[in-house]
Structures are given as structure tokens and as C-alpha cells.
Write a structure and sequence with these properties.
With 305 residues, the protein is α/β, with parallel strands linked by helices. It has ten helices and eleven strands. The protein starts with a helix and ends with a helix. One of its GO terms (molecular function) is DNA-binding transcription factor activity.
């Protein structure tokens, strides 16, 4: 069994498609198909079941996946050791993240890391869902809840805060909002209820507000609705410096705290490159949350003066 065959097997397992795996590996799909067929012949079992949804692992394929992942980690670790660990970061690293972190924190943090490491290629996948690290949808993921299952490394990054907010253009058209009960008479902006992928994101539910007039699975869409004066909603404090037309409301009554976690596959602990990037990313995110929330506090103090 050759490593190159296992590499192609991993590509199909992760992308569930011959063509997608071919693009990732820069091999034509016909060659991918032949190599998978050769591997299945060597093993004596079908590794994939084809369906309209793509290529799904069979039981034999799932068993081989565990071995192939360990082989991949060994190859990557050997490459790092031979290349040396003292140099700059290089190669491709893909980060999965909810779009709040992906839009308002990760770009500037990753830009600073990339500026110090010219040979490093960073990809940010901003999706409102959980990532499957075993299938290498991402090398690491930023989450709002620590996972409780799987062979994973989980590290808390930082606490962050959210508040109720609305545009001044909206607030000028309505009576002052002084109680939580008054919110029931306002148009609320928030997540699509049946697309909330993590219970930690059900902010409006915590306030007893079940009707969401303007809903999206994207934090950025919600923020833009609020900026247009379309209603009221919960906003990350670290996003508010980029939206000065928004004003926090009921600050003493609506104060939501959450945390970000960095999640990695357990086998990546052997990779010094991944360890160094994770350390820089974690520290950079901590500093960026603190900087933006501190900037917001200064803006609020200036407006109150």
C-alpha cells in the first residue's frame, strides 16, 4: 500500500467527490478513480458507496480512514522535522469559523501572522455551522461551544460580550426603550430559529423574544439590517466599532457573555507548525477582542460625556 494512494483516498473521503478531490490534489478525476479502484483491489473491499449525494465511506473505508489519517500525520511530522522547526511558518492552513469571528476578528489577526510568514497561505472558511475536522474540512476551527466528543484538542481563546443595539435612525422614530417588556413592540433582527446550529447563539430566546421579523443565518446580514434602521438585535461588542451608527440599549439589563474556543484534531499536536500557528492565532484573537471591546468602551464614554 503506497502513501500516494492513501493521499488520494483521503482526498475523496474528505470531498466526497472524485472531481473535487482531483481539484484539491491537482489530478484529473479519471486518474483519481483508477487509483481508488487499485486501492480497493489491493485491500479486497469496497471503500466507497456512490450515491446521488456523492461518495460515502463504507465500513471498510471508515476503518482505513483512521489508518490513513495517522499515516498523513506521520508524513507531515517527518517533513517538518527535516525542514527544521526554527524557520517561518509555511504551507496552507485552513480555519473554519462562525461568521462573526470570521468577519470581524480573523482577517486582521491572520493578516498580521501572514505578514511575518510570507510563505504561509491562510484560508478562512466562514460558515454558520460546525466543521468536521476528521474530514479536514478545516485544519482547525473557532467555535462558541467546546465539543464534548471526538479526538480533539480544545483550548479556550477568550470571553467576549454582546449587547442589544439599534441604529439611531430607528431609535429616533420610536419612544425611549427603558424596559425589557418594551421590546415586544419592536421589530427584532436575529438568527433563523431552525438554523441556529449552537444553543449558545439563541440570544433572543434568552430574552423571551421568540418572534424574529428579520432573520438570517449570517451575522453580517443581521448587522447590515440594524445599520439600515430596520429593527433591534443582539450585536457582538467587537463588531460595534465598525458600525458607529448603532447604539447599545438596556446595557445594565441585557449583557450576554460567550467564549470562543480553538478546536484541532488531536493528531495535530505532533505538528510543530500547527502548534506554533495555533499559539499565534489564539494570542492574536485574545488581543483583538480586548482591543475592539476597549475601543467600544472609549466610544461609549465619549458619547456620554
Amino acid at each position: 500500500m503506497h502513501w500516494d494512494d492513501l493521499r488520494i483516498f483521503l482526498g475523496v473521503a474528505r470531498d466526497e467527490s472524485l472531481s473535487a478531490a482531483g481539484r484539491r490534489l491537482r489530478i484529473d478525476p479519471a486518474t483519481v478513480s483508477r487509483r481508488i479502484a487499485r486501492l480497493e483491489e489491493q485491500i479486497g473491499a469496497a471503500l466507497f458507496a456512490k450515491s446521488p449525494q456523492g461518495y460515502a465511506l463504507t465500513d471498510a473505508g471508515q476503518r482505513l480512514m483512521d489508518h490513513a489519517l495517522r499515516a498523513e500525520q506521520a508524513v507531515l511530522a517527518a517533513g517538518e522535522e527535516i525542514a527544521g522547526q526554527a524557520g517561518r511558518l509555511s504551507g496552507q492552513i485552513r480555519i473554519g469559523a462562525p461568521d462573526g469571528a470570521a468577519n470581524f476578528l480573523l482577517p486582521q489577526v491572520c493578516a498580521r501572522i501572514a505578514a511575518d510568514n510570507p510563505e504561509l497561505e491562510v484560508q478562512i472558511v466562514a460558515l454558520p455551522r460546525l466543521f468536521n475536522l476528521s474530514r479536514r474540512e478545516a485544519d482547525m476551527a473557532v467555535t462558541v461551544s467546546p465539543p464534548s466528543a471526538g479526538r480533539l484538542l480544545v483550548q479556550k481563546i477568550a470571553d467576549y460580550h454582546l449587547h442589544l443595539a439599534g441604529a439611531r435612525s430607528y431609535l429616533d422614530r420610536h419612544p425611549p426603550i427603558t424596559t425589557l417588556d418594551a421590546l415586544h413592540g419592536h421589530r427584532m433582527v436575529g438568527y433563523i430559529p431552525d438554523m441556529i446550529f449552537d444553543k449558545e447563539l439563541d440570544y433572543l430566546g434568552e430574552l423571551g423574544l421568540t418572534r424574529v421579523s428579520l432573520a438570517s443565518n449570517s451575522v453580517l446580514v443581521q448587522l447590515n439590517w440594524l445599520r439600515q434602521g430596520a429593527g433591534l438585535g443582539i450585536v457582538h461588542d467587537f463588531a460595534l466599532p465598525s458600525a458607529p451608527e448603532l447604539q447599545r440599549l438596556l446595557v445594565d439589563r441585557v449583557h450576554i457573555s460567550r467564549a470562543f474556543y480553538l478546536v484541532r484534531h488531536a493528531d495535530d499536536a505532533r505538528l510543530e507548525r500547527m502548534n506554533r500557528f495555533a499559539a499565534q492565532l489564539t494570542e492574536g484573537l485574545r488581543q483583538e477582542v480586548a482591543r475592539l471591546e476597549g475601543e467600544l468602551d472609549k466610544m461609549s464614554q465619549a458619547s456620554d460625556a
